[in-house]
């Protein structure tokens, strides 16, 4: 595995830019080691610095047995340090669970700020329901 603490900074710099293919829940993503190790204290950082063993699929992609649906937003956050979600994003709870699983604390903090800043009606999630019922009744005794 890549040793990021190696004294040979030039070879590490090149390998950090080399593409890495990931199979996350059947979705294939290509990124760099630099992106995956941006948060070194996260699980992804540990996986890609050799602290956690990695599995490969039959095509040589690194296999991560998680839901691949929201992983793109995790990668985008790691690349840009910014949470960029589409309008009406409805998978915020799943994104939060995945960020928690991968232990990406800055992303979790960003998700909490996002939740606080966006009105619930614009988050795309289910809204509460309210019903108002006027019931008229007559008592009949036979």
TrEMBL record:
Entries under SMART domains matching the protein: BTB (SM00225)
Cited InterPro entries: BTB/POZ_dom (IPR000210), SKP1/BTB/POZ_sf (IPR011333), T1-type_BTB (IPR003131)
Record-annotated BTB domain positions: 18-119
Pfam family, one: BTB_2
Regions annotated as coiled coil: none
BP GO annotations: protein homooligomerization
Protein name, entry field: Potassium channel tetramerization domain containing 21
Organism from which the protein derives: Seriola dumerili
Classification lineage: Eukaryota, Metazoa, Chordata, Craniata, Vertebrata
């Amino acid at each position: 595995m890549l040793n990021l603490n190696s004294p040979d900074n030039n070879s590490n710099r090149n390998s950090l830019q080399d593409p890495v293919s990931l199979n996350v829940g059947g979705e294939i993503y290509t990124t760099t080691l630099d992106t995956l190790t941006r948060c070194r204290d996260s699980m992804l950082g540990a996986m890609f610095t050799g602290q956690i063993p990695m599995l490969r699929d039959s095509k040589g992609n690194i296999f991560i047995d998680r839901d691949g649906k929201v992983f793109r937003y995790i990668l985008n956050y790691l690349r840009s340090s910014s949470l960029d979600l589409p309008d009406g994003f409805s998978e915020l709870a799943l994104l939060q669970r995945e960020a928690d699983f991968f232990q990406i604390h800055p992303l979790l903090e960003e998700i909490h700020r996002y939740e606080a800043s966006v009105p619930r009606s614009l988050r795309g999630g289910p809204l509460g329901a309210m019903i108002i019922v006027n019931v008229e009744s007559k008592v009949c005794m036979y």
